[in-house]
Design brief:
It is built from twelve helices and seven strands. It has about 280 residues and is α/β, with parallel strands linked by helices. The two termini are about 30 Å apart.
């Protein structure tokens, strides 16, 4: 079960690193999707959001929940480019403030500073639920997928992109890569692609596809790590974030661990598409 202490730890992580995330990642705080190999980090991040939105089959007027909305960039794409009515959730007060500040008065987006497992969205009210790299932070996956299924209309679609554990990682990969990455990134653990599909089916959803995107997203960490290194060298305020006793120094190690985890197959990155059955 996801405890409030777990939620608070995730929120504190993102709040403490808020400025660094915005400077290194930009408005989309998630992996990028490289299709040609020539894209900037920013364009690649947009392409991942576009892939998610396309998979969700959004139509003008659709009601959509964005679970773990970060700075609200995907929510703004949903509202402005696709005419969706969006309810967006984050547990980070820094992200919440930034997302609200970037929204326009005519955007049909309601941002909520709230844990997804405590949402008050009405049953069968949403045409789609999207979750980009947020479910990995939640321990009670059964409850998470149960909430997704509950709020979806019959025929509504769930699209999840997330960090995944590779198939049968070696003991050294668990000890030196997966377990530290989870500690440093405030993840209770990672499921495999099959594990996510099992959770979706257990919640009553029909899994339509499960796609491995690792090859298209893994360069995110090499490019972002280089950006972060330049920021740390140039800005004392960022060095303090990582080096102070109560800071996030362990997270800096993940900038090296995650690319290795991808290269060795200890970690994968996938997109799951599921639908609530009709009738």
């Amino acid at each position: 079960m996801t405890s409030q202490a777990d939620v608070a730890a995730v929120a504190a992580h993102y709040d403490r690193l808020d400025e660094l995330y915005r400077e290194a990642w930009g408005e989309h705080v998630h992996h990028g999707l490289w299709l040609t190999g020539d894209e900037t980090v920013e364009r690649a991040a947009v392409q991942l959001a576009e892939r998610v939105i396309a998979a969700a089959e959004i139509e003008p007027g659709d009601a959509v929940c964005d679970v773990g909305c970060g700075y609200g960039a995907t929510s703004r794409m949903l509202a402005r480019e696709h005419g969706a009515r969006v309810t967006a959730f984050t547990v980070s007060s820094g992200q919440f403030a930034e997302a609200q500040g970037a929204a326009r008065p005519d955007d049909e987006i309601r941002f909520e500073l709230r844990d997804w497992l405590r949402n008050d969205t009405a049953d069968e009210s949403q045409d789609a639920v999207v979750a980009i790299e947020s479910i990995a932070h939640m321990a009670d996956k059964a409850a998470v997928f149960g909430q997704c299924a509950r709020v979806l209309k019959p025929g509504g679609r769930l699209v999840v992109c997330d960090w995944l554990e590779g198939e049968q990682p070696a003991p050294w990969q668990r000890r030196l890569l997966l377990e530290p990455i989870c500690r440093e990134g405030r993840l209770p653990g990672m499921l495999t692609s099959a594990g996510y599909a099992e959770q979706a089916r257990a919640a009553g959803l029909e899994v339509e596809s499960s796609t491995d995107l690792t090859r298209n997203v893994s360069r995110t960490w090499r490019l972002v790590a280089a950006r972060a290194a330049r920021l740390l060298a140039r800005e004392r305020r960022f060095r303090r974030l990582l080096l102070e006793p109560d800071g996030e120094r362990a997270f800096a190690l993940s900038l090296a661990r995650i690319p290795l985890a991808y290269r060795t197959g200890a970690m994968r990155y996938g997109m799951l598409v599921a639908r609530r059955p009709v009738g």
